Amino acid sequence: MKKIGFALLVLLFSLNNTKAQTTINRDPEIAQMIKAVSKDSVQLYIQQMVAFGTRNTLSTGTDSKRGIGAARNWVLNKFNSFAKSSGGRLSAMIDTTTLMPDNKRVIAPTLLGNVVATLKGTDPNDNRIFLISGHLDNMRGSPIDGVGDAPGANDDGSGAAAVLECARIMSQHSFPATIIFVTVSGEEQGLLGAYFMANKAKKENWNIQAVLNNDIMGSNNSNETNIIDNTRVRVFSEGLPAFETEKSAKQIRQMGLENDGKARQLARYVKEIGERYVENLELVLVYRNDRFLRGGDHLPYVENGFAAVRISEMNENYNHQHKDVKMENGIQYGDLPEFMDFEYLRKNTAMNLANLANLAKAPAMPESVKIEVKNLSNNSYITWQAPKSGNVKGYYILQRETTSAFWQKKYFTTEKEYLLPFSKDNYFFAVQSVNETGNESLAVVPGVSGR
User: Fold this and answer.
1) Is residue 21 part of a domain?
2) Is the dihedral of CA 312, 318, 321, 325 positive or negative?
3) Pairing relationship of beta strands 128-135 and 178-184 according to DSSP bridges
4) pLDDT tens-place string over residues 250-302
5) Are residue 136 and residue 108 in the same domain, yes or no?
6) How many domains does the structure of the chain reveal?
7) Residue 296: CA atoms inside 13 Å, Cβ hemisphere, count?
8) Assessment of whether the complete model's pTM goes beyond 0.85
9) pLDDT, tens digit, 9 for 90 and up, residues 353-386
């Protein structure tokens, strides 16, 4: 029998109006982890990475104090130190390959190493993977200069620091799903480390559900416009999927799903969860895969069919990106730590952690989500099946107008069907699984049934 569900908005007021309404429900465990994110920790990570002089992928790999090799080993040692508090669940390695010269940004055979830490999930039936990435390598004015000093404090010491801090805190907790923390190399050579890992993941059928790529997210100001703001951060996401677009183009066009691919759903999720847990931070969704003339390590993942987004600061200062350290006409150039805002980096790191934790604690996405279209009707009937893993309390049905960027309404049910008194012609819908502690899965937009 079809069941009609209705949204319940309960306003609680005492007679003397002293009781406040609860507007945000946070998982206490995640809230505890957010409090543990330390501005001092991320600053210390940045200072140590800068102390290696350069982390250019073409820099020395054998010096114990300078270059990309020393930086890789330091990150590995940090991961291994975190593993001591993980009860054997966190393990780390340097995953290597050899880059051959391309007469562009790789001028000699070069060892490329991604430092990877894996926090194994506790549910043997849950093979989901959630991944956070930042690139360890950097560059100064020339991408093939592996000798000169290149501090790389923000690009991308900030992303690598966020990865390390998330690993430090999350290794002390357990999650049903697996979380991978990675600092990649070869980004400035053409996203080579990310391609190496994404291609490997595709070949080996890793069940990667979400990739959070953090690149340049620790400074609060822009050159030229001179805007200073540490309350907003950007989330870039692709629209039409880069992976097998031809196969899905017909359905995308018929249902108007240009803004509802996996990356866009992930971006909406990142915004909702990030703003739920981190105060004084707005996540600004940018409906582009990346900025003009630039590219990030999320691109290899979306090209392989995974949901991936790029997280970057709101206002970039190009005097401190890809520049030799120098003073010229009264302007200091170079990617130096004194131009960073470590409180801003703390907030952006906490936002990443909140999303990773909520995703890894949540049940898997519901299966076989369908909307009935066999009859002309002003109602919308949606059905689905239980997820493959996770303890499910119930499901959220999400609703928004077709012109809205964000989900506007959310209905809860314990059933596996829902009849809404709203026309499917006028709205988009999706379904999430949710558990007892309120951790939601990613949203699934229904396919059609009944034709």
Assistant:
1) no
2) negative
3) parallel
4) 888 888 888 899 999 999 999 999 999 999 999 999 999 999 998 999 999 99
5) yes
6) 2
7) 28
8) yes
9) 999 999 999 999 999 999 999 888 899 999 999 9
